[in-house]
Design brief:
115 residues; mainly beta; 4-stranded antiparallel sheet; 52% strand
């Protein structure tokens, strides 16, 4: 049974930091490209960050470049998103995504940036 379980969301003040984690199981994690998406209320889902299967290549949306860092641990089947200098516009539900032969999604974790 495939599972992607996100954790680490919550309420943080502007300028603060959060670290999201996604634990994967039920598929061969190490061969999948991993992504973080987010969806704010009344907006389309947005690709935030991508990491290659081996972890050697990363890409970021312009809106988060320099503030967010994606990483993965293929021994632990986890992918993280370190989010620094958070802004109110980062408020969204954040989703973990795995893609290769199939595509899988997590259930999402809420991030709220507000004073």
């Amino acid at each position: 049974q495939v599972q992607l379980v996100e954790s680490g969301g919550g309420l943080v003040q502007p300028g603060g930091s959060l670290r999201l984690s996604c634990a994967a199981s039920g598929f061969t994690f190490r061969i999948y490209i991993m992504r973080w998406y987010r969806q704010a209320p009344k907006k389309e889902r947005e690709l935030v960050a991508t990491i290659s299967s081996g972890g050697g290549s990363t890409n970021y949306a312009d809106s988060v470049k320099g503030r967010f860092t994606i990483s993965r641990d293929n021994a632990k089947n986890t992918v993280d998103l370190q989010m620094n200098s958070l802004k109110p516009e980062d408020t969204a539900v954040y989703y973990c995504n795995a893609v290769n032969f199939e595509e899988y999604w997590g259930q999402g974790t809420q991030v709220t940036v507000s004073s």
